[in-house]
């Protein structure tokens, strides 16, 4: 089995770009990744592309070949859809493809165009990641679903709105120097707890924004990287994927995410590491409570202890285990099809030392990314390590 190197990364700025098409966004990210890798389009043997709502936002299906054309790649191209975990799944499949020796160079990433739908339209489009028959038709939205999860967590383990607010404050602070982030501004605990309520106990600043954007990675086999003298010090050494029932009312737990538990266990076993080896994490914080559930699933904190990690300073950029140095979905933004691959792009830059927040993880060798779909009915976890 071959190692998988991350030879190059590319990201657009996340935010509101309603005038830009999905193919325009992905072309920017894909070409930047190829340039970062020093790899020509002709070397790419496949494109794996994540996208969730293209049919609704752009009346466009069959996006794989379209995105290959946009980035100038003449190779088989496949679209992957797993709600907000779409490009995380695409990365997992690309890793398998390279490991099994089928291909040496794969361009993988994702994009989403959302703001052209408006707030109501984007909310309706996002809702199709829930169970339409039993949740959507009853009026369930994702803010409401995650509010149920937050209240269940508070009831079972404790915590309060100020604990969640500390997560939002931390992630906004991390986003300030990140030029790719949608919100490069700090907020206070008071800003969060006094903001308009969206779905109690989650307010406006507990929620990630609606975003447009794209991300891309050039993945290569170790042999290709060495043969072409690529500067690719970061490898994907572990990958895991888990699943759960779609509808919340069918699950055994509201305050835990078994799909992410499963994905994390598989990724750690694949890499031959444990949670204790992790130096830095990028997790799926679509709502502040989601960061808590993610960290506990990753084993970074015991169940019931993740709620206070930010307020106690443990996951801040100066803390013992920085989480979401990119700004996370909360402040960097969440163009859903792009998010999973963007987490790996940010982590790669952090570990290479060329991210604006790399100074806070100087000497780090192991990072983990956590990407979730819906209310974590899908989850993908990747372990990234610096080659020694």
Automatic annotation (TrEMBL):
SUPFAM superfamilies per record: Thiolase-like
BP GO annotations: isoprenoid biosynthetic process
Keyword tags: Isoprene biosynthesis, Transferase
GO molecular function, one term: acyltransferase activity, transferring groups other than amino-acyl groups
Ribonucleoprotein as UniProt keyword: no
The Thiolase C-terminal domain, residue ranges: 243-385
Coiled coil feature spans: none
Domain of life of the native organism: Archaea
Thiolase N-terminal domain span: 12-222
Signal peptide region: none
Name of the protein this chain belongs to: Acetyl-CoA C-acetyltransferase
């Amino acid at each position: 089995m071959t190692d998988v190197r991350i030879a190059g990364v590319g990201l657009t700025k996340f935010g509101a770009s309603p005038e830009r098409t999905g193919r325009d966004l992905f072309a920017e990210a894909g070409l930047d990744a190829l340039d970062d890798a020093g790899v020509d389009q002709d070397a790419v043997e496949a494109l794996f592309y994540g996208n969730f709502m293209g049919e609704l936002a752009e009346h466009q299906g069959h996006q794989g070949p379209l995105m290959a054309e946009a980035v100038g790649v003449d190779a088989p191209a496949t679209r992957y859809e797993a709600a907000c975990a779409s490009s995380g799944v695409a990365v997992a499949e690309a890793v398998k493809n390279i490991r099994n020796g089928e291909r040496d160079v794969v361009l993988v990433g994702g994009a989403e165009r959302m703001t052209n739908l408006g707030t109501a339209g984007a909310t309706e489009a996002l809702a199709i990641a829930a169970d339409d028959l039993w949740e959507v038709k009853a009026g369930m939205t994702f803010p409401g679903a995650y509010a149920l999860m937050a209240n269940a967590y508070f009831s079972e383990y404790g915590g309060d709105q100020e604990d969640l607010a500390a997560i939002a404050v931390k992630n906004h602070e991390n986003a300030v120097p990140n030029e790719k982030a949608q919100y490069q501004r700090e907020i206070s605990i008071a800003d969060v707890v006094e903001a308009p309520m969206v779905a109690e106990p989650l307010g406006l600043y507990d929620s990630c924004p609606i975003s447009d954007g794209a991300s891309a990675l050039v993945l290569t086999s170790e042999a290709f990287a060495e043969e072409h003298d690529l500067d690719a010090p970061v490898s994907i050494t572990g990958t895991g994927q888990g699943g759960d029932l779609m509808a919340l009312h069918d699950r055994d737990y509201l305050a835990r995410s078994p799909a992410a538990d499963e994905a994390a266990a598989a990724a750690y076993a694949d890499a031959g590491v444990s949670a204790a080896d992790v130096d830095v994490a990028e997790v799926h914080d679509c709502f502040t409570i989601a960061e808590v559930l993610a960290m506990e699933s990753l084993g970074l904190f015991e169940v019931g202890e993740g709620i206070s990690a930010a307020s106690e300073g443990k996951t801040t950029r100066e803390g013992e285990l920085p989480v979401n140095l990119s700004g996370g979905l909360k402040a960097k933004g969440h163009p859903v099809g792009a998010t999973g691959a963007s987490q790996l792009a940010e982590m790669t830059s952090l570990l290479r030392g060329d991210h604006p927040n790399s100074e806070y993880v100087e000497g780090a060798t192991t990072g983990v990314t956590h990407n979730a779909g819906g209310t974590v009915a899908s989850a993908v976890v990747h372990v990234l390590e610096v080659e020694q």
